[in-house]
Write a structure and sequence with these properties.
The chain is mostly helical. The protein has helices at residues 5-26, 30-50, 58-65, 70-76, 82-89, 102-115, 120-127. It has seven helices and no strands. Mean pLDDT is 74; it is low at 1-32.
Length: 137
């Protein structure tokens, strides 16, 4: 194996990034953790009551959404552009059609309702024209 200067710099950068990530992950407070758990418990309970996401656990919900489900709520904040809406609901590329299940729409609505209820009308507007596919058991 040949090791050059680039390899040691790359390793240093990787170790530095890993250390920063570990620090960020371990710096949450007890209050943050209890807030994450409360939202996650609410989502799991709602998903079970709706009959969607049967394998969802509090731990999985916490790891996916944290305290704020920023990946979803930030995308909905301020509305969704017509281009973004078209990409979700239509098939502009002419490739394989998008199949979205009714369960997926219901589950995502529960996520929005739990983590960013102020954006619920934006979500409802976004999915209003989607004809979800019914799943069979």
């Amino acid at each position: 194996m040949v090791a050059g200067r680039g390899n040691s710099a790359g390793r240093f950068t990787t170790v530095l990034c890993a250390a920063a990530l570990l620090t960020a992950c371990s710096s949450s407070t007890t209050t943050d953790a209890s807030g994450d758990a409360a939202s996650a418990e609410q989502l799991v309970s709602a998903a079970q009551a709706a009959g969607v996401a049967p394998g969802l656990t509090v731990a999985v919900a916490e790891s996916m959404y944290g305290r704020s489900a920023a990946q979803i709520c930030d995308a909905l904040e301020g509305g969704v552009s017509s281009a973004e809406s078209m990409l979700l609901t239509l098939n502009p590329s002419g490739r394989r059609a998008k199949l979205i299940t009714d369960d997926a729409i219901t589950y995502e609505r529960l996520v929005v309702q739990t983590y960013c209820p102020d954006e619920l009308s934006t979500y409802d507007d976004l999915v209003s024209e989607i004809d979800g596919i019914e799943t069979t058991s």
